Amino acid sequence: MLRVSRSGAGGSLDHPGVLAALPRYVDIVQGKKYPKYMIAQSLPVDFSRRNTPEELWSIHDSQLEGFQEYEKGVKRKPKRAERNLLELKILLAHQLMLSCGFCERKCAVDRLHGDKGYCRAGRNFSLFSAFPHMGEEPELVPSGTIFTGGCSIRCIHCQNWDISQWQNNGDSLTPEMMALQVDSLTEKGCRNINMVGGDPTPYVWHWLEAMNHVKRPIATVWNSNSYYSLETAKLLAGFIDLYLLDFKYGNNKCAEEISDAPGYWEAATRNHLYAKKYGELIIRVLVLPGHNQCCTKPILQWIHDNLRPMTRVNLMFQYRPEWRANERTELARRLTNPEISEARAFAEDIGLKNLVRE
User: Fold this and answer.
1) What is the mean pLDDT of residues 151-155?
2) What are the backbone dihedrals phi and psi of residue 64, each rounded to the nearest 5 degrees, phi first?
3) How many whole angstroms separate alpha carbon 133 and alpha carbon 314?
4) CA of 247: how far to CAs of 8, 18, 35, 38, in Å?
5) Strands 219-224, 242-246: parallel, antiparallel or unpaired by DSSP?
6) 301-308 long-range contacts, Cβ below 8 Å, gap at least 24?
């Protein structure tokens, strides 16, 4: 099918846990299947700019219901349809830019005409860096990681606070210019395009538009804090191949106090379920000092009960105090060995069977 395979470099793709949880992603990397954005480009959809937003969403949701069956039938290189599902997603996302609603805050600012909301993202991409990243999960590397400015939440311990909080403005790129960055990373042998920040959520329209212009197939990775709206979840469905989602908090109190993220639990659980239904999933759980009982354990239990024991989970112990972490006593220190052992033992005891072990 595809002439380019990127399976030779980086971490192993034949790990049983990877094959069990991410079979389609592996097939894309090995050149056996096509990324979802290409399949969405090939799915004909009858719509017009004269349709109301309500009509466009109805058409979109109807097409999404049949997307997975359509996807299974794609055996050859997809041929772009004149009007297609990806272009419908682009139109819907463009309309959301006029009254921004990509994250749970729904600031409703007109970003197409210069207004900025909580995340401070604007009309164009704000690119901070783009490079082959070797520090991600083994099955992802080398990962074509693209860091964009701004974030929908404000973690006081953020390790990328210089990007999320705009220590500089980055480089302003149109979606067409970002497509060139994607093609360059593909040519360098990256297995995927890793959309990260900050958080990629402010750039949903930008990413849909950019991937509509790329020249070579590559797997898409949505590397997010999970605090995005239902509308965004729908737009990502049928576009993203692999969701790399943070599950940060096991309750809304901690989420609001530490990350200014009201309603985080409801958003995160919904978006993980959407990710599982429409793509493949790696869940990152950063263990915070003093938060095993209130956060780590409820998160892991929910994953076990609502997804499946073979869900790929990266239980992360590399927390270090950054930015404003000293504002909370428990976050002003690193994890203790007993905290690490407790979190790992709980994950194993409840039956999570696919923990990332680098």
Assistant:
1) 98
2) -65, -35
3) 17
4) 31, 19, 25, 29
5) parallel
6) 301/350, 302/250, 302/269, 303/247, 303/272, 303/352, 304/350, 304/351, 304/352, 306/269, 306/272, 306/273, 307/272, 307/273, 307/276, 307/281, 307/283
Tally DSSP H helices, then E strands, for the chain: 14, 8
Lookup result for tokens 């058409």:
59
CB 313 within 8 A of CB 343: no
Q: How far apart are CA 232 and CA 153, in angstroms?
A: 16
Q: Which amino acid is at 106?
A: K
If you write DSSP's letter for every residue of 14-70 in order, what string do you get? --HHHHHH-HHHHHHHTTSS--HHHHHHHSB----TTS-HHHHHHHHHHHHHTHHHH
* Strands, sheet with 192-196, edge to edge from the N-terminal-most edge strand: 171-173, 125-133, 143-148, 192-196, 219-224, 242-246, 280-286, 312-316
Please name the residues in contact with 297: beta carbons below 8 A apart, sequence gap of 6 or more: 250, 343, 346
Tokens of 23: 């079979």
Average per-residue pLDDT for the chain? 96
C-alpha–C-alpha distance, residues 299 and 305, integer Å: 10
Question: pLDDT for 34-92, tens place per residue?
Answer: 999 999 999 999 999 999 999 999 999 999 999 999 999 999 999 999 999 999 999 99
HSE (CB half, 13 Å, CA atoms) of 319?
A: 27
**Pseudo-torsion of CA 257, 228, 314, 148, nearest 10°?**
-100
Number of alpha carbons in the 13 Å side-chain half-sphere of residue 273: 10
First to last CA, the chain: 31
Torsion 73-77-81-86 (CA) sign = positive
The three-class DSSP label of residue 174 is coil
CA distance 149 to 212: 21
Tell me, what's the pLDDT at 12? 86
Report the topology of domain 16-349: TIM Barrel (3.20.20)
Number of neighbouring beta carbons within 10 Å of residue 261: 26
pTM over 0.90: yes
